[in-house]
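hey m, so remember when u said the tokens were messed up on ur end? i reran from scratch. heres the input so u can diff it against urs
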Amino acid sequence: MVKKWWHDKVAYQIYPKSFYDSNGDGIGDIPGIISKLDYLHDLGVDILWLSPCYQSPLADQGYDISDYYNIDPRFGTMADMECLIAEAKKRSMYILMDLVVNHCSDEHEWFRKACEDPEGKYGGFFYLRDKKEGVLPTNWRSYFGGPVWDDLPGTDKQYLHVFHKKQPDLNWENPELREEVYKNINWWLDKGLGGFRIDAIINIKKPQPMRSYPPDREDGLCSIGNMLQEARNVGEFLGEMRDRTFKKYDAFSVGEVFNEKPDEIPDFIGDNGYFSSMFDFNETIFGSSQKGWYDAAPITPDDYKNCCFASQAKVGDIGFLSNIIENHDEPRGVSRYIPKGDCCDESKKMLAALNFMLRGIPFIYQGQELGMENLPISSIDEVDDISTHDEYRVALAAGLSPEEALKAVSAYSRDNARSPMQWSDEPNAGFTTGTPWLKVNPNYTAINAAAQTGNEDSVYSFYRKLIALRKDPAYKETIVYGALEPLWQDRHNLMAYYRKGNPTLLVVGNYQGDEQEIVLPAAYKKVLLNNYKDIAENQERITLHGYQVLILEM
């Protein structure tokens, strides 16, 4: 493997709207991020990924971009963004922005011009079809529910949107459109960005010609996954984008990639892959159902372990995964992956270590380092997330009571991760002096950065130690490049694996509240990290406390 500058880095995702509000308007902003750079530097992170802060009507919280060359005034100015890039560079940190180019906003200049002249240049930037009364061009269901086709305003045509109706899909088959995308990417890289996280990128390739598939719900529509399964040759676009943009700047790129086929992994993240890395979503998609969130199966500790190991085996030493516990589209990991009733500092630290020590690039989502938990939701009227509203309707239509439907969707709502960052026990968790745009989790008085940063036993301090261990010259080569080899894979509620190298490390976590005994295959030299103050051992036997995790030098 060709070694790259990003291989040994630790990344941190910021959701700007919920990170820190500098001016009291209830919305997080770029000056707020700048003011917290020292906090992030002290934690030890190197790469900061910002969810979209481009100009946007926020129909999908910024993933609907109306101007790729401007910062939305809610978040600040271009001068603020340039200042953030410069201040991060002073601290040897890199800024990533979101690259959202499967679709734009219906308020983008391109779409407005397409409405004015569907047969003209900008009509060709979108997927337009003649409107036929009572018949849709295809029966695909959008990610947010309902058909993917809507009327093009002022015309006799319809346009495709695989997400929200205010997010028209861009036609990547059109070389003129691709040129505009590459021009924008390079414009930002010239400003000093370290790279991009690439949003929903597999969707840019639609099977041609488009066709309908058998419906899978009573709405007569089918899952958008059918389209993705049939799409071929997305690599033609991705390879071109890499060569025209990222490769020229040695920029870091991480793809939001679903539905990749095993034989395509070298193409995506090999030495000359389309991207530097791609996220591992194996754990996040486990238990999902075509019927909807209400029918999803909960993930058990053994499921979580097997998902992680399957991803690691699939990728091997081909390239680097980006490993996540949560992100802006997922519920809080501690609420999802730790059995109900067992959420505590010890179990949160165990989950952190088991994920962080996997081979790949660790991504921390804001508040994860504090052990932030899911948001209690008492009414659907409190919910902002559009996908949660759609899934609530789906659950009601399936016969669930309003109470049952709310409980089902609350567990997966994107609002869980988007609630304001918990900085202190001051009003609104210290996030804003105004009224926060989204409800603050009431547990902020107990879970907040101010209480944890000075506490050696806190979840925050444990993350800080994990990052320091990854960067320790004595262990860095093993942690970054060493092979991962599972151990005791069939043991119930135990997750253990070697990181092979010189030295070799053993990571072992007791994924349950009850004690569990292990017999080490060989003696260990040193305990590098332990979420308890002791180890209960009798010669080669170790009795692990509930949710105890150990990182041992063998």
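this time it looks ok to me. The longest helix spans residues 175-190. if urs says something different then somethings off w ur setup not the seq
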